[in-house]
């Protein structure tokens, strides 16, 4: 059996190692693993393993953060497998240096490697994958080859690479927003490709904004663990206005509203004595920008960070096409609900990578006939889509602004894969006439019982 994994971040590497260890022929197709959002991950991975913590408490925190539309079976499934995920990493050479507290967690359960966790974990796993014989193919997959509902492989530079199973592990689409501290290339190309081929997308309206982005020469993230260590959020005139350890949706919205009042918002981390040692990455970034966190206030602004929505999969990470799977941020099966709990994403990456490997071994799919590529055009005017998403599908939305966004989108000359991703977000945000988690409607500023359910975007093709 030949398996193609599109994307070499944490989820893709875990799936690849698990499969190759069972004798499967595995290729990872994508940019360098270093160019993934997993590599950029700072604080860490949520495991409910410290004394006093439990799977049950972690499940409850996840559902509370997700505002009660998480798929409970999925939540229990993922978090119950956290011990297995932890053991997988440790047995493959990962050593954590401690654990931190982040917003929405009842315990300091975020296992970290000096708050630059991805930078340490990804190279270790990539080295294992190479040593075990995983074939790395560099490049951006343009589309998934599907003909008459059957999977044939993936297209790279117009050529079909044939596989019996394909796992989409590309990450999400926060790069489709004007400001993100994540990888700019994560624009959801394959999510859109699959939507155009009739694969349903789920929960696309839920886009998480990280409260403490820092816009300097580039856009950076100041890990939430800095707030966990005691940093406070204040306005320019010194007012403290939110509990810094509330969930991200609440904190990001509070900052946004202060900014609308024309007030600058700052992180005051001057009380953290061992800042440089505890947060070496953030320290070095700030120093380069002329800010000393021991003396200066740090200007912050929310930035697009994580997309809860994506390719709709079941609890085993299967799409509706036999042999086609999706894991990590590219996938959506209700684990995060309306708002992801901090550091649950890397946990999901490891668990979904392990789980999809078992699913593929059990199902042993066989590839279908060859397909011809669609011949998509150049990507076109991506920046106009980023502008529309930022202005019309941002932290606060309403009917007229969403409709305006949809109208503007029609006029943009850009690749239809990207346009359909943007359309899915705007459409589902318009249909969800309530506020829940990361989706806040100024015209419906409350949760409504009739919307206590996931959303799906499905083109009948
Ligand atoms: C952070 O360290 O604040 C980001 C980690 C995450 O997104 O969970």
Tell me the layout of helices and strands.
Blueprint: E1 2-6, H1 10-20, E2 25-30, H2 37-40, E3 45-46, H3 55-65, H4 72-80, H5 82-91, E4 98-100, E5 110-112, H6 117-132, E6 135-138, E7 143-147, E8 150-156, E9 159-162, E10 165-168, H7 189-196, E11 201-202, E12 207-215, E13 219-221, H8 224-228, E14 232-235, H9 248-260, E15 265-268, H10 275-278, H11 280-288, E16 298-299, E17 301-307, E18 310-312, E19 324-326, E20 331-332, H12 344-363, H13 382-392, H14 399-410, H15 416-431, E21 456-457
Parallel strand pairs: 1-2, 1-10, 2-6, 10-19, 18-20
Antiparallel strand pairs: 3-5, 4-5, 7-8, 8-9, 11-18, 11-21, 12-13, 12-17, 14-15, 15-16
Helix pairs in contact: 1-6, 1-12, 3-4, 5-12, 7-15, 13-14, 13-15, 14-15
The structure holds succinic acid.
Key attributes of the depicted protein:
alpha/beta; FAD/NAD(P)-binding domain; Flavocytochrome C3, Chain A, domain 1; Methane Monooxygenase Hydroxylase, Chain G, domain 1; 3 domains; 4-stranded mixed beta sheet; globular; binds succinic acid
Radius of gyration: 21 Å
In terms of DSSP E residues, the strand content is 15-25%
**CATH fold descriptor of the largest domain:** FAD/NAD(P)-binding domain
What is the overall silhouette? globular
Short overview:
This protein is α/β, with parallel strands linked by helices and 461 residues long. It has helices at residues 10-20, 37-40, 55-65, 72-80, 82-91, 117-132, 189-196, 224-228, 248-260, 275-278, 280-288, 344-363, 382-392, 399-410, 416-431, and strands at 2-6, 25-30, 45-46, 98-100, 110-112, 135-138, 143-147, 150-156, 159-162, 165-168, 201-202, 207-215, 219-221, 232-235, 265-268, 298-299, 301-307, 310-312, 324-326, 331-332, 456-457. The chain contains 15 helices and 21 strands.
């Amino acid at each position: 059996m030949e398996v193609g994994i599109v994307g070499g971040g944490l989820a893709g590497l875990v799936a690849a190692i698990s499969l190759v260890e069972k004798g499967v022929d595995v290729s990872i197709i994508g940019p360098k693993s270093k160019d993934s959002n997993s590599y950029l991950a700072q604080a860490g991975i949520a495991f409910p393993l410290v004394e006093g913590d439990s799977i049950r408490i972690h499940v409850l925190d996840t559902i509370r953060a997700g505002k009660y539309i998480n798929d409970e079976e999925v939540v229990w499934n993922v978090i119950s497998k956290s011990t297995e995920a932890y053991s997988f990493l440790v047995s493959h050479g990962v050593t954590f240096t401690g654990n931190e507290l982040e917003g929405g967690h009842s315990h300091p359960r975020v296992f970290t490697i000096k708050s630059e966790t991805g930078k340490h974990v990804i190279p270790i796993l990539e080295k294992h994958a190479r040593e075990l014989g995983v074939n790395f193919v560099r490049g951006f997959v343009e589309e998934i080859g599907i003909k008459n509902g059957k999977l044939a492989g993936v297209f790279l530079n117009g050529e079909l690479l044939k596989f019996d199973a394909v796992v989409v592990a590309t990450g999400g689409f926060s790069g489709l927003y004007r400001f993100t501290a994540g990888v700019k290339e994560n624009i959801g190309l394959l999510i859109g490709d699959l939507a155009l081929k009739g694969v349903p997308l789920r929960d696309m309206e839920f886009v998480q904004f990280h409260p403490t982005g820092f816009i300097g020469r580039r856009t950076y993230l100041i890990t939430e663990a800095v707030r966990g260590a005691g940093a406070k959020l204040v306005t320019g005139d010194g007012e403290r206005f939110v509990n810094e350890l509330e969930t991200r949706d609440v904190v990001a919205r509070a900052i946004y509203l202060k900014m609308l009042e024309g007030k600058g918002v700052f992180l005051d981390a001057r009380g953290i004595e061992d800042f440089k040692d505890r947060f070496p990455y953030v320290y070095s970034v700030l120093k380069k920008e002329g800010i000393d966190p021991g003396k200066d206030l740090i200007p912050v602004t929310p930035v697009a960070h994580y997309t809860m929505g994506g390719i709709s999969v079941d609890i085993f990470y299967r799409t509706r096409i036999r042999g086609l799977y999706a894991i990590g941020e590219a996938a959506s099966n209700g684990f995060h609900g309306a708002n992801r709990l901090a550091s649950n994403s890397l946990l999901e990456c490891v668990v979904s990578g392990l789980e999809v490997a078992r699913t593929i071994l059990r199902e042993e799919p066989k590839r279908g006939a060859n397909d011809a590529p669609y011949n998509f055009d150049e990507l076109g005017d991506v920046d106009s889509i980023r502008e529309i998403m930022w202005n019309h599908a941002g932290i606060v939305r309403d009917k007229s602004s969403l409709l305006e966004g949809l109208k503007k989108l029609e006029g943009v000359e850009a690749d239809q894969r990207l346009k359909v991703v943007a359309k899915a977000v705007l459409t589902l945000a318009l249909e969800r006439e309530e506020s829940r988690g990361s989706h806040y409607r100024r015209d419906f500023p409350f949760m409504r019982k009739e919307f206590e359910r996931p959303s799906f975007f499905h083109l009948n093709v």
